[in-house]
Amino acid sequence: MSGLGFRSLGTVNWYVNTLEDEGYLYRTKGSNGKRALTLTQEHATHPEACLPLLGLIAAGEPIEALETPNSVTVPSSLVRPDNFVLQVKGQSMIDEQIQDGDYIVVKKTATARSGQIVVAIINDEATLKCYVPKSDRIELHPRNPKFPIITIKKTDNFYINGVLLYSFREYAS
């Protein structure tokens, strides 16, 4: 317990219960008759799974939102029915360590909290930006000072298509 930095058995129990509730662990009796924790078969044998790669997302000026269905291998913990992958095109989010060519895992949702990185659709064009709602407008902030803030006008057809969960990049092997 102290090796993991926990001071309380209650904290350890909370984490174990959460992992059990999420389907990662189940409780058994070990061969010696004592309690044991075992990885569920799904997570023990399939550490990776696939999510749909739906196309490109602009990290810069918005680009036309086109789907180009494919799939990408991701950790199985990210596989949920409402998650999908996009490939980043552009440099507007480099201060968030999101580079041109990176892949992002997005949770499909129509709402976001201020400061979350979102897939925003503006007049049928998609962009990846930091969502900043104001009392009288919505702003989409890049994370690169070389790019301008996008202010959503009342005449714009705007909606949030999802929030960023995870980003990764592939390196040549």
UniProtKB/TrEMBL annotation:
Pfam families per record: Peptidase_S24
UniProt key word Hydrolase: yes
Signal sequence interval, chain numbering: none
Organism name: marine metagenome
Domain (Peptidase S24/S26A/S26B/S26C): residue spans on this chain: 52-164
Protein's recorded name: Peptidase S24/S26A/S26B/S26C domain-containing protein
Family statement drawn from the similarity comment of this UniProt entry: Belongs to the peptidase S24 family.
Stored CDD domains: S24_LexA-like
Gene Ontology BP terms: DNA repair; DNA replication; negative regulation of DNA-templated transcription; SOS response
Keyword terms: Autocatalytic cleavage, DNA damage, DNA repair, DNA replication, DNA-binding, Hydrolase, Repressor, SOS response, Transcription, Transcription regulation
Keyword Repeat (UniProt): no
Stored SUPFAM superfamilies: LexA/Signal peptidase
